[in-house]
């Protein structure tokens, strides 16, 4: 069980702009596993105190996916632009999926990153 790293905290911060109920959940999350794939990674979470009475995170259409218009640019490389979504079950966070929509494999390097919009032209 690991603490959330800066990238994970920053992704939750971006998601919280549209889903503010996430903020109450973050202090009680720990990473149970980080699974790397060719195109990205899954970050699986557990709650460190499941007896908490947290307000469920709910989307208006009852979807279990929490989406955002932000992209993570890794290592100042436009070919390493990753999208992310959070998945929930019964209003609790299960995992974040970080993935590359393009044709390029992701190196898995979690070094330098910045957030941008899907609609912006990246500067490099």
Q: Give the averaged pLDDT, no decimals.
A: 86
What fraction, in percent, of the residue positions are helical?
10-25%
Terminal Cα span: 36 Å
Fraction in beta strands? 35-45%
Shape call: globular
> Could you list the spans in which at least 5 consecutive residues all have pLDDT below 50?
none
How many strands in all?
7
| Helix and strand composition category | mainly beta
Radius of gyration: 14 Å
> What is the helix/strand order?
HHEEEEEEE
Number of domains: 1
Largest sheet: 7 strands, antiparallel
Quickly count the helices: 2
Can you give a write-up of this model?
- A hairpin with a 6-residue loop joins strand 4 and strand 5.
- It is built from 2 helices and 7 strands.
- The N and C termini lie far apart (36 Å).
- Strands 1, 2, 3, 4, 5, 6 and 7 form a 7-stranded antiparallel beta sheet that branches.
- The protein has one domain.
- By secondary structure, it is mainly beta.
């Amino acid at each position: 069980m690991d603490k959330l790293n800066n990238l994970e905290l920053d992704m939750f911060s971006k998601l919280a702009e549209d889903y503010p109920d996430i903020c109450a959940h973050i202090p009680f999350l720990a990473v149970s596993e980080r699974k790397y794939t060719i195109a990205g990674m899954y970050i699986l979470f557990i709650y460190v105190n499941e007896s908490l009475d947290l307000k469920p995170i709910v989307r208006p259409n009852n979807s279990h996916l929490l989406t955002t218009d932000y992209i993570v640019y890794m290592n100042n490389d436009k070919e390493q632009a990753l999208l992310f979504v959070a998945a929930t079950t019964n209003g609790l966070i299960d995992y974040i999926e970080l993935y590359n929509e393009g044709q390029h494999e992701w190196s898995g390097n979690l070094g330098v990153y910045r957030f941008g919009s899907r609609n912006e032209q990246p500067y490099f």
